[in-house]
Each structure stands twice: as structure tokens, then as C-alpha cells.
Amino acid sequence: MKNALLWQLTPKNGGPVSYLFGTMHVRDLRAFAWLETAKKHLQECDVFASEFDFSETDPMAIAAIMQLPEEESLDKLLKPGVWKNLEFYARKKLGIPAEKLRRMHPMTVSLTLTNTLMADGADYSLDETLWEHAQAIGIKTTGVETFAEQLQTLKEIPFKQHVKSLTWLLKNYKRQKRRLKKMLKWYRNANLASLYKAAKKDAKGMRNKLLFERNKIMARRFAEIAHNESLFCAVGAGHLAGQKGMLRLLKKQGFKVRAVVA
Q: Where are the domains of the chain?
């Protein structure tokens, strides 16, 4: 597979030219190298689709999933040594005592701590930046998933898996920093194969639910739009490559696929 984050897709029997762009859901400017190229092709299209339409975001639903059930707390769920690590990183990286995080869902704490490993150079994540740009220039916006579908996917991850992931992060914080640095390098170099392997590793035990089933849904909805309108679609780069990736699925659905050079 060629090293490219942006791909041009055209129905084999003729039709509008569309694009599939692999993003990272981060505000770190190291991931924004392809932004101007993406914007250039985005403005040629009729429709912009992110994974879900950001206008569907339900803050109350997000707030609910961020909290632990009433009877649970992280100081009970985590082993003493791991809780001690959380106390250390909460103060060092977030400037707050771990007590402030005690009632938070493990996934929320994992995301919060992981975000401290990335720079917040932009106002919005890369995919949100593209969504905002599409809105600003009057292009119709939608999603190839719904917000409700993404929320349901998160709910279907076993709770023990969330605790396990947070435990791993608190034991391997410096290792995760090195890993994210490597992933940003792969992304800047448009190394889809390595990003796909990383996505599979992160989804271990849940690959069908987190990757493969979602790829099918997003590819199907991409095709539904792109047969009639010129579509620019931005999804996480880990969804593009592989035998069950969106590029392969869209080829099977009758699209010609060509890499776009930045």
C-alpha cells in the first residue's frame, strides 16, 4: 500500500469524484501536515462527512458515560500500587489530587492522561477542524456513523477492559509517550500499514466491534453518498488499511481508488 493519507475514489461506471482522508483525533499540530491538502480537495466536494456529525454531540450523554456507577470508585477498582501511580500522575500532569478523579470512568481518566502526552496546539482536533472548515464554506456536513452508534460502541467495551487499559497506562506512562511519538511520526509519513497495526493492537479482544464492523458501516454509508454526490470523508487513519479496511471494502463496492500525493 502506498504511503498516503488522502485517497481519491470514483465509481467504476462513472460518477462524482470523492475523497477518503485518514485523520488523527488530536489537536497536536504535528498531525496537521496534510491539513491544507485536505482543505484544497474538500472545497471541491458537495458533502463533508466525519465519523459522526459533530452537531449531533450530546453533552449530557457524554457526561453520563464519563462517570462511574454510584457504588464504584477508582480507589477500590485499582490495586494500591496503581492508585499510587494515579496520585502521582494526577498531581504532576493534571495539577489535581487523584481524589478529583476517584469517581471518573477509567476510560475518561485514560483519555485525560493520554491527552497530556500530546500538544494542544490547535483549537480543535484535526477532524473537527475540517468539519468547522466545511461549515464555514457552506458545504453540507454529515457522518458515516451516528453519535448514538459511537456511544453504543463505547458502552459495549467490557468494563474490565477499561480498568485493564487504565492500569496498563499508569504502569507504562513513559512507554505510552514513546509510542504516541512513534505514531505521530507514522502519521506524518502517511504510514497507513503501521497505523493499522497500532489500531489492531489497541482494539485487541474487540477488533470486530471497534474496527471491522465499524469499517463496514462507514464504507457502506460512504458509498451511499458518493454514488450521487462528491464526498470528502475524514475518519481515523487506522480504519483505512488492511483486508477489512475501508479502502479494500470500497474497492469491492465498485470504486476506483487512487492515492493523492500531498
A: 8-260
